[in-house]
């Protein structure tokens, strides 16, 4: 372990919170390497690391989940051209082994907003991956950056093809469908109604009904019509 990696690990160990560790671990079944550091703290620390000589850290095989989270956050913050960014993303994806690392990583990849076609072409193949978190990665990228007028139909059609049996892949599909419905209800409704995967269909309706942006009357209607 190099000097930079030791510096990062020292910071992480100092910032961990026992109560938050227990809370986070309860949300991450079968994940046993959680230190318990709040996401805003990690994001703030990543902003200081990106100003330093971080390259060796990105190749570091960390022991703790938060080390992976920091690596993902750094990739989002690094200023470089989109092709270079996608190469880093491709190298990081195999490190994603839980929903928390996946979702925090995707949230930081804001360059996708201004490079939609390039990023879309990159993420589409992951939807049919045999790896649960590769599928979830693609779906969370979609719900973050592609639920708009230009891409909504493509997103909806691609969600229909999700057939991975992993819980977090199916939940990613349901979450993405719920965001599509909240933003484009008329376009999304038929896709939910005709969703072949019954589990994804049920979970998407439940996610929609959790939204504060949907009225009680509409929630009651879609439950009656779609469940």
Keywords:
227 residues; mainly alpha; Serine Threonine Protein Phosphatase 5, Tetratricopeptide repeat
Quick description:
By secondary structure, the chain is mostly helical. It contains 14 helices and no strands.
General description of the model:
The protein has 14 helices and no strands. α9 (132-145) packs parallel to α11 (167-183), α11 (167-183) packs across α13 (198-210) and α13 runs antiparallel to α14 (216-226). The longest helix has 17 residues, at 167-183. The chain has helices at 3-15, 18-26, 39-49, 55-58, 65-77, 82-92, 99-107, 116-123, 132-145, 152-159, 167-183, 185-193, 198-210, 216-226. 66% of the residues lie in helices and 0% in strands. It has 227 residues and is mostly helical. The protein is globular, with a radius of gyration of 19 Å. The model has no long low-confidence stretch (mean pLDDT 96). The protein folds into two domains: 1-111, no CATH class; 115-227, Serine Threonine Protein Phosphatase 5, Tetratricopeptide repeat (Alpha Horseshoe).
